[in-house]
Amino acid sequence: MPHSHFHSFIVSLSICSVCILTFGCSGPRPILYPNNHLQQVGPDQAEQDVEECQQLAEDYAPEHDASTVAGDTAVGAGAGGAVGAVSGAIGGGVGIGAAIGAATGATVGFIRGLFQASQPTPAHKAFINRCLSERGYDSIGWE
Description:
two-stranded antiparallel sheet, 5 helices, 78% helix, 5% strand
């Protein structure tokens, strides 16, 4: 019977992870001040220029580091496995407890790493802000 609990736990955790990733992965974007240039070109052209600047920034100032995600996943798995083994020892199932803990910790670490990686680095933001400034826009912040 514990095996079916483990299976349903993993399925629930997977569904939650997909939902979080679906709704949480749209990254921050620059907020443009409505200066004369923005008013002249309009929102459609401004959006195209933001997209172009973001692509240039991705090419020259990478937004994230894959090692951050991998590191957070490994740390989460290790910590979760240790906590799961302890709680499993109390309940009489060290192996299952450790496996559940490791899976939970790895998932939490992976999601944490993805959220951190989805945040642009200061250099990435500065690159986009400069690109937009050279095109006549005034970025007043990010949201």
